[in-house]
Amino acid sequence: MPTTGQSRGVSARSKRADAVRNQQTLLEAAAEVFVSSGVDAPIREIAARAGVGMGTIYRHFPTRADLVIAVYRHQVEACAEAGPNLLASADSPLAALRQWVDLFVDFLVTKHGLAGALQSDSGGFDALHAYFLDRLVPVCTQLLDAAADADEINPGTHAYELMRGIGNLCIGHDSDPRYDPRRLIDLLLQGLRRPQSP
Question: Which domains does the chain possess?
Answer without folding.
Answer: 1-62 (1.10.10.60), 64-198 (1.10.357.10)
